Amino acid sequence: MTTERRRWLALLVLCLGDLMIVLDSTIVNVALPSIRAELGFSEASLAWVVNIYMLTFGGFLLLAGRMGDFFGHRRLFLIGLTVFTCASLACGLATSAESLVVARAMQGLGGAAVSVVSLSLIMIMFTEPAERAKAMGFIGFVIAGGGSIGVLLGGVLTGSLNWHWIFLVNLPIGAAVIVSCLVLLPAVAGRRGAGKLDVAGSVTVTAALMIAVYAIMDGNNAGWASIQTIGLLVVALALFAVFLRIETHAVYPVMPLALFRLRSVATANVVGVLWAAAMFAWFFLSALYLQLVLGYSPLAVGLAFLPANLIMGAFSLGLSERIVLRYGFRAPLAIGMLLVAASLALFARAPVSGNFAVDVLPGMILLGLGMGVSFNPVLLAAMSEVQPSDAGLASGVVNTSFMMGGALGLAVLASLADARTKGLTTAGVDRLDALTGGYHAAFLVGAVFAATAAALGALLLRPGSARPSHEDPDALRAHVVVD
To answer: What's the burial of 295, exposed, middle or buried (CB within 10 Å: 0-12/13-18/19+)?
Structure first.
């Protein structure tokens, strides 16, 4: 087998691994009503099935990125896949709310290792701008389109079998990817003697974010002015301040603050937070709107997301690559995020008696266009000025922005929807009208997030190409050992 052929087959293995990870960030959305009914989740605690995955995923990304740089990317990829696959089995066999949440947390840990290593290996294996843009197009399809595929697959499995199979389906896929990885994936030399891992920084920032999300999610029940809510938010801020101090003084910080002096890195990560805050909440809330308000079955919900998925696939597998190579990062990112904002604004007017062709399909089409155009530029911009030796770190930072933005955004918008619904119900509004009013409020705020991301990208991001500024192709090729 030629080196060129092996390289592209290795990309396929990375895409399959990433697909498993991304699917599990959205595949549960369609099954949430079934999970709630069987395992006894409350309305407020149900979001933890999604959020705990994003929190452990995002919290471990930075440390996982550094571990890949130090100890070898393929080794960490294999470990992550194994942990994720075993955790998927535990999720599928869960018989209580607590056991499912714990297993989802373990999925997040394994998923973080797989996700961050795959991006690092792509940046190392593909050094030519055109090839890198093409490779990132494939992985962009998996990450952006995989979310919609997850909703569709979740609908099919939940409707034809039961919710347990949305997790058990990972077992044969995981086993196949692990075997393929051993045969095809290049072994990348680690830097064992380069220093120590910043475990303290990783633990501190993860704890800060988890406490903040819990305070936001429980704010409606405990009261926003209560001692509990205010106290938890103060603790979260204090832990984040400790994290910044650790990173300032650490010899080998998990998140070197100097990295954010690169304008493309700083801007892309802020945009990533806002992008994910809008999109993860959109997946969660729109699936609930279709089921609880319009009365769609799980399979019908999955099919409703199909138009967006097909459009994202078309962009990610070719169109996005050509757009980035011709126009750079800034214009596609800003235009894409404006389309996402328009999509969310359309969903914010969807009525109780909504019609698919009039009230759902237009928003799905705009969402597919917006995500397809904008996602690849965000990833490329975030890693464009980074040294090759820090590819794992940069990958971890941008993925952390996505997952932490998603967790915080979902917590804020789900709490906003819940508060608005309760307020309308107290005022005597019909149950379905109250639910719809809550979703409308959340969709509007999500549209503001997306519009803000578009403005920041347009104003602050430099027009760039797919070529990193600190690229040394010979050094990169020498760093890859195919065995």
So the answer is: exposed
